[in-house]
Amino acid sequence: MASEPCRLYVSGAILGYKRGLRNQHNSTSLIKINGVDTKEDVDFYLGKRVAYITKASAEKNGTKFRVNWGRVCRAHGSNGVVRCKFNRDLPPQSIGGRVRIMLYPSRV
Q1: Are 81 and 31 in contact (CB under 8 A)?
Q2: H, E, C per residue of 3-45
Q3: Number of other residues whose CB lies within 10 A of the CB of residue 36
């Protein structure tokens, strides 16, 4: 019996960087996770890994895809937006793009 492929991630959108009125903090990115609309829902995603995937022209390690890994740090506001820190800060052209929020590591 063949098993169905399972998706180990939830999609999200990059909203921008953490910022105040005059200062912008590029090291922290704001991500809106699909299906998460309250601060209580965010609790499940704390500590989960986030992948920002891009495609390059040159092949490296047998693939043209590059991945920038990050982690969900905390909630941002009360509408299900989270703050994430990435190994390398996200580039400005990533704003409005998509990320994958992996459903691991588990804290259950």
Answers
A1: yes
A2: CCCCCCEEEEEEEEEEECCCCEEEEEEEEEECCCCCHHHHHHH
A3: 22
pLDDT per residue as tens digits for the range 34-90: 999 999 999 999 999 999 999 999 999 999 999 999 999 999 999 999 999 999 999
Judged against a pLDDT cut of 80, whether residue 102 lies above it is answered with yes
42 burial level (CB within 10 Å; 0-12, 13-18, 19+): buried
Angle at 33 between CA 44 and CA 26, to 5 degrees: 105
CA distance 38 to 75: 9
What distances in angstroms separate CA 96 from CA 32, 55, 58, 92, 108, one per listed residue?
Answer: 10, 16, 24, 9, 31
Beta-carbon neighbour count of residue 89 at 10 Å?
A: 16
Tally of CA atoms within 13 A in the half-sphere of 26 that contains its CB: 8
Other CB atoms within 10 A of residue 5 CB: 6
